[in-house]
Amino acid sequence: MDASRRSDPAAGKARTTLERTSERELVVKRTVDGPARIVFEAWSKPELFQRWWAPKSFRVSLISFEADIRTGGSYRLLMGHPSSEQPMAFFGRYIEVTPPSRLVWTNDEGGEGGAVTTVTFEERDGATRVVVHELYFSKEALDDAMASGSTSGWGEQFEQLDDLIVVLDAKV
Amino acid sequence: MVQLSTARLDASFAALSDPTRRGVLEKLGRADASISELADKFHMTLTGMKKHVGVLEQAGLVTTQKVGRVRTCKLGRSRLAEETAWIEEYRRLWDSRFDALDQIVEELKQRETFGGRKQTE
User: Fold this and answer.
1) Rounded distance between C-alpha atoms, residue B43 and residue B30, angstroms
2) With CB atoms 3.0 to 4.6 Å apart as the test, which of A41, A48, B15, B28 could cross-link to B75 if both were Cys?
C-alpha cells in the first residue's frame, strides 16, 4: 500500500534518509525535483552552494566559501556559531568533479584521516537521485565523531571540551 | 565540510560550564547515585541538585530513573541511544539542506523557462 512519494501528493514533502551502512560509512539519500545538470550546478558553483549548505534552522552561519570546484581544486569554508567567538574553518581538496554525475572531496580540517565525501547524481524522469556517501578513516573515527556530537573538528577551542567528555566516558 | 551538531554542543557547554555539575559527573563516573546522595555530597538542597541534574540530562550526559521514591542517576547513555540520536540529528541537518537546495533548483529551473534565450552548454 506504500505508494511512491512522488506519485502520492498526500505523502508530504520529499524525505531525506540517512543510514550507517557499515562501521565507517554514512549514506544520505534524497530525490531532488530537477534535472541532474541543474542540481549539479547548485552543488558545484560556489555562489549557489553557499546559499543552501548552512541551513538557518541550525543557527550556523556561512561566513565565506572559497572554492575551485574542479578535479584537483580545493575549498575553504568558514562557518560561525553563536556559542563560539572564533569562526570554524573547513577545508579540503576535490578528488573528482565530473559534471553532472559525480563530486568527491576530502575533509582535511581534522588532520590526516578525515572522511571522504562522494556525491552522485542520477537522473530519472526529470528528477535527480542524490546520494551523499561519507567514508570515514576507521570505525573509531566515526564512533568518535558520534560520541563528541560533531563529525569533524570544531577547532582547538573545543578540544578541551572533547577531552573532558572522553575522560568522563572512560570512567564508566 | 561535514556536520555540526549545534544543539548537542550548546547543551554540553551549559552542562560542563559549572563546577558542581562537573563534580557530579565525576562522582557518577565512579558509581550511580540518587539525587539525595548527590545533594548531600555537594552540600545543597534537593531542589538545587535537581536543577543541576536536569541540565546534565538535557545534554545527554546523565540519565535518571525513578524507582519508588528514589531517583537514581547514572552516567551517559547507551552507545546505541547515542548513535540513534546522532543519526537522527544529522539526518535533520541534511533534510534542511536539501529543503534549501530545492528552492535554489526551483529558481534555476524558472530562470531557464522564462529566461528567453537558451544557455549554451
Assistant:
1) 19
2) B28
